[in-house]
UniProtKB/TrEMBL annotation:
Cofactor: Fe(2+)
InterPro entries: Peptide_deformylase (IPR023635), Peptide_deformylase_sf (IPR036821)
Full protein name: Peptide deformylase
Enzymatic class: hydrolase
Role this protein plays: Removes the formyl group from the N-terminal Met of newly synthesized proteins. Requires at least a dipeptide for an efficient rate of reaction. N-terminal L-methionine is a prerequisite for activity but the enzyme has broad specificity at other positions.
Length: 182
């Protein structure tokens, strides 16, 4: 089942997620739903908080959005090693219509468990390293826009507020039009 992706500034996106104690059928279904949601929205990664679930679960497939050949589901992932620096352009399914350069570690090692409870370790560089860091940030309530300059963040926040005002105005106009027609 496809889930709704929460959009910034939703408060859930700023919360730290809780460790997963037990892998249940509900958790497996959440992972399946998240993968479907990620693919439907042409993403390459999605964290549970982005669909309103504050648990430490991410799905990643950097072969997407066109292909769907390497789905990784990570339970309680954590970065255990990082080295180097790289700057690359990032976007986010929860941050509509905005991309910006973000500095990240060039290489990371991530430890997690899979949906069978088996431990796994991923040594990553390139796009996979960036994607892992981006998604794991979500688990700590951090968005990529929290890692950009104050000026760029301020400009984005102004854009979001303007869009919110425009939506509110359109909603009021639609309600008024309905009231006139009743």
């Amino acid at each position: 089942m496809r889930r709704t992706i929460l959009k910034y500034p939703d408060a859930v996106l700023a919360r730290k997620s809780l460790e997963i104690g037990e892998i249940t059928d509900e958790l497996r279904q959440l992972a399946k739903d998240m993968a479907e949601t990620m693919y439907t929205n042409e993403g390459i990664g999605l964290a549970a908080p982005q669909v309103g679930e504050c648990c430490r679960l991410v799905v990643i497939d950097i072969t997407g959005p066109d292909k769907r050949e390497d789905l990784r589901v990570l339970v309680n992932p954590k970065i255990t090693a990082a080295e180097g620096k790289v700057v690359s352009e990032e976007g986010c399914l929860s941050v509509s219509g905005y991309r910006s350069d973000v500095a990240r570690s060039e290489k990371v090692t991530v430890e997690a468990t899979d949906l069978d409870g088996k431990p796994l370790s991923i040594e990553a560089d390139g796009l996979l390293a960036v994607c892992l860091q981006h998604e794991l940030d979500h688990l700590d309530g951090v968005l990529f826009i929290d890692r950009i300059s104050r000026l760029k963040r301020s400009l984005y926040d102004k854009k979001v507020k303007k869009l919110q005002r425009e939506r509110a105005k359109s909603l009021k106009e639609a309600e008024a039009a309905q009231g006139e027609g009743a």
